Structure to design on (188 residues):
């Protein structure tokens, strides 16, 4: 039973409450450890590989010029494992370390996000509109050990590096190289 209110059917408060109570009576089994990359992404890749799930893009990116990047679940899983290795080995990061990523929405943004999940690294995204003062504050408040950006935004980061005592590594996403920065694409 629902009441019509201005032509829309809405649930009564008592119905919502009883629905909520019925959900809470269900015993949820929560895993002790959960990792989206290995528990979901890798499982979907396995199902696709075994033919039990149709092959669909896990990731599909198109830029303003119409260039596309498409990754299957298996490709995204493989690339995210490689990216996690870059973060762990080349950047020296461990589970629980924090990474600030200030990138436009390029495919690497999503790849690094999944890689951080996989490695247990805390991914902290920031908008490309951050000023040097904003970047400095985020580095100090978060105690981030790695900063990831592109060549356009790197100068703002470099201007605040003397005050950053926790930063271990700087990773640049792009084609070119920059003194003192690791190049993500080359390492991948």
């Amino acid at each position: 039973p629902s009441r019509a209110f201005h032509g829309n059917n809405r649930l009564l408060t008592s119905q919502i409450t009883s629905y909520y109570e019925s959900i809470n009576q269900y015993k949820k089994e929560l895993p002790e450890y959960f990792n989206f990359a290995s528990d979901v992404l890798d499982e979907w890749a396995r199902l696709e590989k075994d033919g039990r799930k149709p092959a669909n893009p896990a990731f599909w990116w198109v830029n303003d010029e119409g260039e596309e990047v498409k990754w299957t679940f298996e490709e995204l899983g493989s690339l995210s494992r490689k990216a996690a290795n870059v973060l762990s080995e080349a950047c020296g990061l461990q589970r629980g370390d924090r990474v600030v990523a200030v990138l436009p929405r390029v495919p690497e943004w999503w790849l690094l996000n999944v890689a951080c999940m996989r490695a247990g690294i805390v991914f902290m995204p920031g908008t490309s509109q951050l000023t040097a003062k904003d970047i400095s504050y985020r580095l100090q408040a978060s105690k981030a050990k790695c900063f990831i950006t592109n060549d356009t935004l790197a100068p703002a980061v470099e201007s605040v590096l003397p005050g950053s005592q926790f930063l271990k590594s700087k990773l640049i996403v792009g084609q070119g190289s920059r003194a003192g920065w690791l190049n993500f694409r080359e390492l991948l």
Confidence is low (pLDDT under 50) at residues 1-5. The two ends are 58 Å apart (CA to CA). Helices lie at 13-25, 36-49, 73-90, 107-119, 132-142, 154-158, 184-187. The beta strands are 3-5, 8-10, 59-62, 68-71, 98-102, 122-126, 146-149, 169-172, 182-183.
